[in-house]
Amino acid sequence: CDCARDLPLDTAHGPYPAVVFVHGTAAFRHQSLHQVTHWASRGFVVVAADHPGLVLGDLLALFCPDTTTGARDLDGDVALLTEALAAPTGCLAFLAGHVAADRLAVSGHSAGAGTAASASSLQGVRAVVSLAGNQPAVDAPALREVLFMSGERDGIVPPSAVRSAWDASATPRYLVSMANAGHLAFSDLCATANSSGKNLVQVGRQYGLCGVDMAGMLFDCAADQLASATGWNIINHASTSVLERALQCRTDLPPMAAIDAAYPDVAVYEEAP
């Protein structure tokens, strides 16, 4: 990824708004690096954690002689993360005084998207970005903008389910669906390969990883789907527009509706002011 460890914090600016990202089922904290590194490059502190009960090993443990990473409590996880950003200590102590805890967003993919939507009422949360999620974001005093995104070829959380959640969500809200995109378009997983060009499932099969075929049921990547880089550009455009308006109070950005003309692969764009 375009990232490095232990870079010094730019203390000449800030405090910085923050984004909490929640990964999907059978994934991990760095599943969507093209999104989280882009947000960081735009002036946001981005926090992405491995969530017990939801990571890849937890799915494999259902079918293999292994133990899970712990009990799943995604809502509790996100609440703890937002509290930690408001009063950073321990390994987050370097952020003390540099995070604007009243300007937060929560984003997530799949199961993580449902958690992001349910976090709309947490202290300081001004924006929700739901990527392939089917749970509505309820209205709350601090909430300013809501974005739902879907893939037209998503067989796990179909666009109709995303739309239903969007219809029931707070306003102002935006809906963006990408043509020919699957469930994992909102991650780096389809584009992740080893030096031999083998993807994650193929590597697992090569080494006889227990449960890999069950995990492969969620791996909806196909050569004829929307190119990963194209999808990342659309996701970054839509999500960053929402984040910059809601958390940085930007008023000079093009209207969200411009995404429809900017990207031919946007199949659906709707907004509810």
Describe the structure.
With 273 residues, this protein is α/β, with parallel strands linked by helices. Helices cover 30% and strands 18% of the residues. It is built from nine helices and seven strands. It has helices at 33-41, 56-61, 74-86, 111-118, 159-167, 200-206, 212-216, 228-248, 259-262; strands at residues 16-22, 45-48, 99-109, 125-131, 145-151, 173-178, 266-272. A seven-stranded mixed sheet has the order 2-1-3-4-5-6-7, with helices on both faces. Helix 1 (33-41) runs parallel beside helix 8. The longest helix is centred in the last third of the chain and has 21 residues, at 228-248. The two termini are 36 Å apart. The mean pLDDT is 96.
Describe the secondary-structure layout.
Elements: E1 16-22, H1 33-41, E2 45-48, H2 56-61, H3 74-86, E3 99-109, H4 111-118, E4 125-131, E5 145-151, H5 159-167, E6 173-178, H6 200-206, H7 212-216, H8 228-248, H9 259-262, E7 266-272
Parallel strand pairs: 1-2, 1-3, 3-4, 4-5, 5-6
Antiparallel strand pairs: 6-7
Helix pairs in contact: 1-8
Structural class: alpha/beta
> What's the tally of helices?
9
β-strand amount = 15-25%
The number of distinct β-strands equals: 7
Largest sheet: 7 strands, mixed
Principal-axes shape call: globular
Helix share of residues?
25-40%
Order of helices and strands: EHEHHEHEEHEHHHHE
Q: Order of strands in the sheet with the most strands?
A: 2-1-3-4-5-6-7
Query: Which whole number gives the mean pLDDT?
Result: 96
Question: Span between N and C termini?
Answer: 36 Å
Evaluate the radius of gyration.
Answer: 18 Å
Q: Which residues sit in consecutive blocks of at least 5 with pLDDT less than 50?
A: none
